[in-house]
Fold:
Amino acid sequence: MKKILTAEEIARRLPPGQYLTEKFPVLTYGPVPRFDPARWDFRVTGLVEEPLRLTYEQFRQLPKSEMVADFHCVTAWSRLDNHWEGVRVKDLMRLVRLKPQARFVIVRCDGDYTTNLPLEEFLDDTVMLAYRHDGQDLTPEHGFPLRLVVPKLYGWKSAKWVRCIDFTAEDERGFWEVRGYHNHADPWKEERYSFQEEQDT
Structure:
């Protein structure tokens, strides 16, 4: 059961330009990918000492964590106190040895979706690869079987249907980033659109 928040608490936790909702709207480009647990796998590639591949069963056997975090969509709604379950990135990284040149992460997903993060953002303690939300498995529309959750950034960085984490030396703008959205996406700075990046410099 969610804690009842005062108006002051809500105002403190809503970034500029956002409004509160109890719903969890579905925003997706393209069809929802079909999931076959026998064929699904998760990979870590790029600037790593050894690439990693896990089957669905192997991924679900990784240490599970829980996290409560707010979710802010660039379309201006925010949903507070989401209860996520999955694998924290810091736990996944115990299986990975990065090469020194690694500076960025490209998240590659089913449906040809990608998004990009600086390495330090990806390694933040709050970042999780989630498969459950508010006590239930994620619905396919919300990214099942695996969704990245990056609470400190706008929701398009929390990519659905994740299949691969690719470590790179150079940044590579993702699906929405090449279509006019901000490369960083901090909701507290209202980093919504790419034209703002010129204003930031």
Remarks:
- The first helix runs from residue 7 to 13.
- The chain has a mean pLDDT of 95.
